[in-house]
Amino acid sequence: MTLPLRYYKLLELRGLSLKELGMTEVALAKSDALKALTILQGGAAVCTGGGVVYLEFGKPPRLSAPYQWAAGRLPLESLSEYAVRSIDIARHFVANFPEPPEPAVGYRLYIVEASDLSKVEAEQADSQLGRYILGKLAKLRERNGN
User: Fold this and answer.
1) Fewer CB atoms < 10 Å away: N or C end of the chain?
2) Contact residues for 93 (Cβ-Cβ < 8 A; gap 6+)
3) Does residue 115 surpass a pLDDT of 50?
4) Interaxial angle between packed helices 114-144 and 79-96, expressed in degrees from 0 to 180 and rounded to the nearest 10
5) Domains in the chain, please, with CATH?
6) Quick one: DSSP state of residue 97?
């Protein structure tokens, strides 16, 4: 299953470029992020793994690290349950994020199709294991004075 064409059109027409941050993705204004989530909600095979909030577009844009959310899959949770729950979490976060005095907030949604989910989860596990091993190696080198 592929993502709905309406979702891609929304990104194309309303997306805010993150090229200044060295990324090829786009972020969406609050109302557009909520529209995107509504478009994606109908497809049980689409999950949002979380997202981040970017502030100060064009000044240049910067990542606001404290403002992120995640929606990992729970043990024994079916893909359809995860899809519904993850979209609900994203919608709740975006809808309740306080508006700054200047409307310069963009939301980057991490969208994953269910068919790609096991691959993404495996890559995340590999990445976490890799960071763990690199951290341990760095501590050993530090201890040995290397």
Assistant:
1) C
2) 51, 69
3) yes
4) 70
5) 5-114 (3.30.190)
6) S
Cα distances from 68 to residues 14, 49, 63, in angstroms, run: 21, 11, 10
Measured distance CA(41)–CA(38) in Å, rounded: 5
Cα–Cα dist 32/11, whole Å: 9
Residues 6+ apart with CB under 8 A from 20: 60, 61
d(CA 109, CA 70) in angstroms, rounded, equals: 10
Query: Would you call the peptide bond into 60 cis, given omega within 30 degrees of 0 as the criterion?
Result: yes
Which tokens is 80 given?
A: 């359809």
Q: Evaluate the CA torsion angle 77, 125, 42, 108 in order and state its sign.
A: positive
More confident residue, 80 or 29: 29
> Do 45 and 33 form a contact (C-beta atoms < 8 A)?
no
Q: In sequence order, what are the beta bridge partners of 70?
A: 50
Alpha-carbon distance of 42 to 32, in angstroms, equals 17
Q: Where are the alpha helices (DSSP H) in the chain?
A: 5-14, 30-41, 79-96, 114-144
- Quick one: tokens of 58? 């064009």
pLDDT digits (tens, 9 = 90+) for 7-62: 889 999 999 888 877 778 888 888 999 999 999 886 655 777 788 887 765 556 55
